[in-house]
Specification:
The chain is mainly alpha-helical.
């Protein structure tokens, strides 16, 4: 079943609540949740995230570290990919100067749906203090 909802307008709590309710209802059945998340779990082993072995595999697959500044945000209640604070802290080491990693308390995998104003603020704050590549 496909659930269609009206687009979320930034700051519109009612629309955000409606969409969250539909997502929770659709995934309430454990079989549906496992089907939805199984794909991601099969593609990603969070216990290896940020390890030298993981970095080597990423380099082989993608051609090396990301040279651009990167903001990596990860929710503490992400049911798809749980990672530790130490793993998040290692992410900027694989990206360009000015990169940051932040574990965001109390949000899951869809943090922009859950708390759009806060997450957009984190992104825009980072963009304002991060020089463009070649502009540093």
């Amino acid at each position: 079943m496909v659930v269609r909802t009206a687009p979320i307008v930034r700051g519109d709590d009612a629309a955000r609540t409606i969409r969250t309710v539909h997502i929770r209802e659709a995934l309430a059945d454990p079989a549906h949740l496992n089907a939805a998340l199984g794909y991601y779990w099969g593609q990603f082993d969070p216990t290896r995230f940020g390890s030298p072995e993981w970095a080597s595999e990423q380099e082989a697959a993608w051609g090396g570290s990301v040279p651009q500044p990167t903001l990596y945000l990860h929710g503490t209640t992400d049911g798809c990919h749980g990672v530790s604070e130490q793993q998040v802290a290692r992410v900027p080491g694989y990206a360009g100067p000015g990169s940051e990693g932040k574990l965001v308390d109390g949000v899951g995998h869809f943090m922009l749906v859950e708390r759009p104003d806060e997450i957009n603020g984190l992104i825009t704050d980072w963009l304002h203090r991060t020089p463009a590549v070649g502009q540093a």
